[in-house]
Design a protein that fits this description.
Blueprint (H helix, E strand, L loop, with lengths): L10 E5 L4 E5 L58 E4 L22 H5 L7 E7 L13 H18 L5 H7 L23 E8 L11 E7 L4 H16 L5 H12 L3 E4 L3 E4 L10 E5 L11 H22 L5 E6 L7 H6 L3 E5 L15 H4 L3 E2 L3 H9 L11
Parallel strand pairs: 2-12
Antiparallel strand pairs: 1-2, 3-4, 4-6, 5-6, 5-10, 7-8, 8-9, 9-11, 10-11
Length: about 400
Amino acid sequence: MPNKILDDISHRRYNPLRGSWLLVSPHRTKRPWQGQQEGPGKIDLPEYDPKRCACWLNCLQCYLCPRNSRASGDTNPDYAHTFVFVNDYSAVKEEQADYAAESGSCDDLSSLLLRAEGVKGKCYVLTFAPKHHITLADMSAADTLPIIETWTRIYAAHLASTNPLSQVALGLGLVQQDAPPESVVPPPANQYRYMQIFENKGAAMGCSNPHPHCQVWTTSTLPEEPAAETVQMGKYRTEHDGRHLLADYVKLEMEKKERIVWHNDAFLVVCPWWAVWPFEVMIISKRHIRALVDFTEAERLQFAETLQEVTRRYDNLFETSFPYSSGIHQAPLEGTPEEIENSYFHMHFYPPLLRSATVRKFLVGYELMAEPQRDITPEQAAAKLRDCGGELYRKKL
């Protein structure tokens, strides 16, 4: 490794996806820890929870299990794979009063400093499986494939007719009418700008229900993180003869082999050079894929395989049900031709655990007031995750 010295000295690393910097302090891994320790992550749940929810809220039953009632009073179908429904407590709504800020003069402090805009949208909950006691790490690639197919259907149903990806979606074999009704959503009442698919796994990441699930939020605005990436990826293409930032990054990582965790023909799993969280990884498509609808049938299965590899290695690392927040970044639902073409499919995993199943990383103090900071280097993290392949640890118990 040409930069071996970086394992021992404090230094900053640049994140080209966000145009930002972070501080790396590898020597701090030697410091004693007397702060908060999380309880070991255990999965001690029933396969089906008809009477008592394990979400610490004294619920009568799990709101996500098949055949159970939700807070809205609706009853879940007896689903076999995935089940999607409109979130009973959505963060954004399709119907609300319009808001337009009054325009003021350039000297009007209110219009300069007290800005706001209305946001409309639609939020969904998507269960991964009918079984209450499993996670993605417990599932096979074949079991995970229906999740990816459902993500693709939801994304396709929300694409703007002006988006060139809408024509790609029409040619997919994943047509809505042939899908199980519990994995289909109707087109929205309004056209939305962006769709964020994300999962919060574990109580440490604020997950209030352990039943395996994710969320899908569509909004009329482009959120901060994907917006920053869109700008940076567009800038990179302009400055480098139309090359894609993440395509070049995949090529570089495949050559250096210093931060690679795992890869197959279609996807690379890497602890990125600029990672903030201790065991943060990115899944990046090896070819230019703009969004889920660009996947071939083979790539959907390879993506399922990749998700399974990441989540199983996480659990094997500290032999615990590893918490994380993950999310897919892809082309916006509605955008300029340049925005769509500049987009490059990738998925972020942000896990908080640092040294063990009980010691987590906190983004506080310097991280909040100055810039992000990490201790263990991405190269060290990648080496640990590479060693965590193989069978899921709890299957050996």
